[in-house]
Write a structure and sequence with these properties.
InterPro entries: DNA_brk_join_enz, Integrase-like_cat_sf, Integrase_catalytic, Tyrosine_recombinase_XerCD. The structure is a single chain. It contains 13 helices and three strands. By secondary structure, the chain is mainly alpha-helical. The chain has two domains: 78 residues; 193 residues, Intergrase catalytic core (hpI Integrase, Chain A, Orthogonal Bundle), CATH 1.10.443. It has a three-stranded antiparallel sheet with strand order 1-2-3, with no helix packed on it. Helix 6 packs antiparallel against helix 8.
């Protein structure tokens, strides 16, 4: 830990919290700076471990006029994690819940049943000559890739032997490797071997030298969703990006059911999703944690969405 000097009586707790996070694999350099600001606030207000109140937290965890929403969310999630750490140490403090402004809507969180119905709707429609939506949407469900990341994948990005995809120049201009489950790897391999037209892209459009477009994929997602019993004319409906949210929920739910510490796995999930920092993933987790109960206790979708694949005949 470098130059970690805290002045308030909570200093030993800050030190222990940082040490725990670094042992879990987080660098926490940026977070140390934010914790120092909270430390200064506690010193100024003469706050001790036993005197942290909801009023103190409400005062400190208020978005500043000069603060961006992303910066505020990162600050909020960090302090919330610190308070959870305090509770784990036997020091009871209230854990605040983040409130989402109307300008940042809560994403549509698809259930197992909804995803199964959507995939079934996709499978009932024959694949396009240049594009197999059954394969594409399954890839999003099982990897959590961003839509544009999946569309830009090239044949050379796929490693059949190591069962992986390399995402080149993703968000933040960073590369990362995504590993595929055995069934998804087999599905992708079969799909590629079935194609007669040769393109440098895994998912190409009418022009074999260009990837398929986001707009067409989004439109197709909506069409197939409208064919399910869950579509509503008046309520909220998912978008193609909801499949990424679904992947995150499934992954966190799986860890929880297996008794694995979600907190210790956030770093790996953050890297897999291509987030700039674990703070983005913590924010994501706080958004969905209260909705984990909507997931089915019997995980049957993972198997069902891999069934009934049709391949294009060109």
């Amino acid at each position: 830990m470098k130059n970690t000097i805290f002045s308030s009586s909570l200093g030993y707790l800050f030190e222990g919290f940082i040490r725990q996070k670094q042992n879990e694999g987080f660098s926490y350099e940026e977070q140390i700076s934010r914790l120092k600001n909270f430390d200064k606030y506690c010193l100024k207000k003469n706050i001790t471990a036993d005197s942290i109140t909801k009023e103190n937290l409400r005062d400190y965890l208020t978005i500043k006029e000069t603060e961006s929403k992303n910066s505020f969310y990162a600050r909020f999630c960090l302090i919330r994690q610190f308070l959870i750490y305090m509770n784990a140490r036997g020091i009871h403090v209230s854990i605040p819940n983040i409130s989402i402004s109307k300008s940042k809507p809560v994403p549509f969180l698809m259930t197992d049943e909804q995803v199964e119905a959507f995939i079934s709707s996709v499978d009932k429609n024959p694949p396009k000559r240049n594009f197999n939506y059954s394969v594409f949407f399954r890839l999003l469900c099982t990897t959590g890739l961003r839509v544009n990341e999946a569309l830009k994948l090239r044949i050379n990005d796929y490693d059949e032997i190591n069962k992986s995809l390399t995402v080149i120049h993703a968000k933040g201009n960073k590369d990362r490797i995504i590993y595929l489950a055995d069934d998804m790897n087999q599905l992708l391999r079969t799909y590629l071997n079935s194609r007669k037209r040769r393109s440098p892209f895994i998912f190409y459009g009418n022009d074999i030298n260009k990837p398929h477009t986001y707009g067409v994929v989004s439109k197709t997602f909506r069409k197939r969703w409208m064919q399910t019993k869950f579509y509503t004319n008046t309520g909220k409906n998912p978008t193609v990006h909801s499949l990424r949210h679904y992947f995150v929920i499934k992954r966190i739910n799986l860890w929880a059911s297996e008794g694995i510490s979600i907190n210790s796995m956030i770093l790996y999930l953050s890297k897999h999703l291509g987030h700039a920092s674990p703070n983005e993933t913590y924010y994501y987790y706080h958004l969905i944690k209260d909705s984990l109960k909507i997931m089915s206790t019997k995980d049957v979708t993972g198997k069902k969405i891999m069934e009934g694949i049709k391949y294009e005949e060109e």
